[in-house]
Design a protein that fits this description.
This protein has 374 residues and is mainly alpha-helical. Helix content is 63%, strand content 4%. The protein contains 13 helices and four strands.
Length: 374
């Protein structure tokens, strides 16, 4: 619905409403600080606690860089009248404002895609045993890429010539800007919902207490929190589609886009940061043993006689829970819980509803021979 302020000039002496503009400055500052802080902690954790920088970290760095640039452009947009009523924006700011709108429209797709790509990449590693789910994730990545590449090309060539986008006095033609923004919003809502819901059936199928399942779902599905921003963004686009008060309407829509991207970037850092929290926890816990349980149990077994070893079923099980192993996988340090049985007893591998090998792997060995060689 068109804003009344867009049709009637501001009355003489009336104060200019800068509340949305101020909210934009606060929102973008918070987004930049939060993204940089979480990404910095991720880099520290990967370099000094985990196994160093990997390919996934470079993708996350690209998402962080684009997210920060996206917020900086929003600050520039506010400087040129974004967040003000159109009637309150000086005429000399119209073209610079439209240029910032053009840049944000082109940047939104690649920024959103790379952020979601990083989140989905984490899921492919965490749920690697669930083959069908992993295949679905890769197909979904491909579908999104097949949309965003032509979408970016269309946005770049939205007007012919391009300069007509910010200067309508130039002769030429332009496509429907609102329809393109609407399409982006629908794709964002759909993809955010998938990122939010995908870990649910996979995690619920695991054999672990419900409390731990909720923790895993919280870590892996945190990126789906951006769905709230994307839904509200879509609603605002629909409501303000015909508004002439573009400087105010677009800034509101853009702030929600910034929030969506920032939440996504932060959530890509959460799995790695869990390692930092675990390190801090163990350093302040005086009751934790310094010897790894698996090593301790193997040492105890080696001290037994060969006859006792051959008659007994021995189970060497890492003390990590399914939750811990999922977190390790998300951090980029895959852990597989392994059970070792003697010659006399065997156990089948637990399967998963997605046709994978499951989270637990069973290995049958000749105990006496293995330990004798050791």
């Amino acid at each position: 619905m068109p804003s009344i302020m867009s049709f009637f000039p501001r009355a003489a002496g009336e104060d200019i409403d800068t509340s949305v503009q101020k909210w934009n400055y606060a929102c973008q500052s918070l987004c930049i600080i939060a993204m940089t802080m979480f990404f910095g902690l991720r880099v520290y954790t990967r370099l000094f606690i985990l196994n160093g920088f990997g390919k996934e970290d470079w993708v996350c760095m690209a998402a962080w860089f684009l997210g920060v640039c996206y917020s900086i452009i929003a600050i520039v947009m506010g400087h040129y009248g974004g967040g003000l009523h159109f009637a309150d924006v000086p005429k000399e700011n119209f073209i610079p404002f439209e240029k910032t709108v053009y840049v944000t429209m082109v940047m939104y797709g690649p920024t959103a895609y790379i952020t979601k790509f990083c989140l989905l990449w984490i899921m492919t590693r965490v749920f690697n045993p669930f083959r069908r789910a992993v295949i679905f994730i890769y197909v979904f990545m491909g579908v999104m890429l097949a949309y965003y590449i032509p979408a970016v090309i269309v946005k770049i060539r939205l007007c012919n010539p391009v300069a007509r986008f910010w200067d309508r006095t130039i002769p030429g033609t332009c496509m429907d800007e609102t329809a393109i923004i609407m399409a982006d919003a629908v794709v964002s809502v759909t993809s955010d919902l998938i990122v939010l819901l995908l870990p649910l059936p996979l995690t619920l199928s695991l054999q672990m207490p419900n409390k731990k399942k909720m923790r895993v779902i919280g870590i892996l599905g945190a990126g789906g929190l951006a769905v709230a921003s994307s839904i509200i963004r879509l609603i605002l686009i629909v409501v303000t589609a015909t508004s002439k008060d573009i400087t105010l309407a677009f800034m509101r829509v853009n702030m929600l886009g910034n929030a969506e991207v920032s939440i996504g970037v932060i959530c890509t850092c959460l799995p790695a940061l869990s390692a930092l929290l675990m390190k801090i926890y163990h350093e302040h816990s005086s009751n934790k043993a310094t010897t790894h349980p698996s090593d301790y149990r193997l040492d105890t077994i080696q001290n037994q006689s060969r006859t006792e070893r051959s008659r007994k079923q021995m189970s060497v099980r890492e003390m990590d829970s399914d939750e811990d192993m999922l977190v390790y996988n998300a951090q980029g340090n895959p852990r597989i819980e392994t059970t070792i049985h003697g010659d006399t007893e065997r156990q089948d591998v637990r399967g998963s509803p997605f046709g994978g090998i499951g989270i637990t792997r069973t290995v049958d060995v000749d105990v006496s021979t293995s330990l004798e060689k050791h």
